Amino acid sequence: MIVRQFISWVRHAPAGERAEATRALARAYLISDLSEDDRIAAEGALILMLDDASALVRQAMAQVFAHSPYAPAVIVRALASDQASVALPVLEFSPLLVDADLVDIVATSCSEVQCAVARRVQLPVAVCAAIAEVGSAAAALELIENARAELAPFSWDRIVERHGHLAAIRESMLALPDLPGATRLALLDKLSDTLTQFVVARRWLSPDRAARIASEARDRSTVTIAAQAQRNEIGALMGHLRETGQLTAGLILRALLSGNLSLFEAALVELSGLPRARVGALLHDGGRTSVNALLARAGLPETCFPAYFAALEAIREIGYTGSEDGDARLRRRMVERVLTRCETGEETAEPLLILLRRFATESAREEAAAFCEELLAESEDALAA
């Protein structure tokens, strides 16, 4: 009887009153002890209101049904496909929408709707992949900041590929403590490319000089990321560097001159195809001939062999065991020792000497900066005491 009166009344009632009456009927459907016949009638009346000309009416239903697992599924799906002002609460909260529904909505809807989906709790892999593949930058940002979203590695990579040039995306991703190392490297590539294009467009640097500075900065960051990565991530990092053409002789030499022997070993494992145990044995116990054979198998240029072997000897002699910064900075003592040995060698190529001299300058500046920071810290502690 009540439902029949409702249907008769809403035909002529103002939009605001229709919305409030629809809200009351939706609540009654969820919480009232209706008979089976009354429940069926109420659902029919609410389905009828899906065609109401006023969005206020449909918004009222969406607000009531958004969080409930007991709402009529057919109504929830219809509301999810409505205009954004109606659909948003249902898309963000309704437990009745399945993965296939959400993937289809992401593929066919505007950024505002995609953002609502990206904010859902316990967002599954398939929906995350859809947002990463076709979602707007705003939706990708919502996805990154959703701690309960289940992003697969390929989804992270796709977000970087599509939106990594945007500062907000990079900052949000780099702030994540568990972001895969390979993804961090991909983000740094995007940042490097963006900055290079900017300074060249402004004519602050020539294209060649900008590219060289960017390459050196990228190598420094790569060694830092690799030094901080978990052991089980190193293989993926090396694979990424190789695929992107960044696993170069210069990067490998930088890692070794930073005292990061594990990264040096991982690079040779990736390039040579030999087991890690075999590579480690050759580096730790092999002579020059064995080491040179390993480097040749890895495809590294023969002109760099003297520097690699001199660095390995320096590590053995100095007894380097790591540092507080995680083997991320060039070791000045090592660099200068390797440079001295290469300068006195008769067959050392000039490009290698140029690279080592740049490393020597960089390591000296970093050491000076660290020394000054220590002095300032001691001064502040003394003043505080």
Shape: elongated
Query: Helix/strand-derived class?
Result: mainly alpha
- Ends distance: 83 Å
Count all strands and give the number.
0
Residue fraction in strands: under 5%
Mean model confidence by pLDDT: 87
Order of helices and strands: HHHHHHHHHHHHHHHHHHHHHH
Number of helices: 22
Low-pLDDT residue spans:
321-326
- The domain count comes to 4
* Main beta-sheet annotation: none
Fraction of residues in helix: over 70%
Rg (CA only):
31 Å
Question: How would you characterize this protein structure?
Answer:
The chain folds into four domains: 1-97; 99-176, no CATH class; 180-232; 248-385, no CATH class. The protein contains 22 helices and no strands. The longest helix is centred in the last third of the chain and has 35 residues, at 350-384. The chain has helices at residues 2-10, 15-31, 36-49, 55-65, 73-80, 84-93, 99-108, 111-118, 125-134, 137-144, 153-163, 167-174, 181-201, 207-228, 234-243, 249-257, 261-272, 276-285, 288-297, 305-318, 332-344, 350-384. Residues 321-326 have low confidence and may be disordered. Helices cover 73% and strands 0% of the residues. The termini are far apart. With 385 residues, it is an all-alpha fold.
Task: Give a nutshell description of this structure.
The protein has 385 residues and is mainly alpha-helical. Helices cover 73% and strands 0% of the residues.
State the main characteristics.
single chain; 385 residues; 22 helices
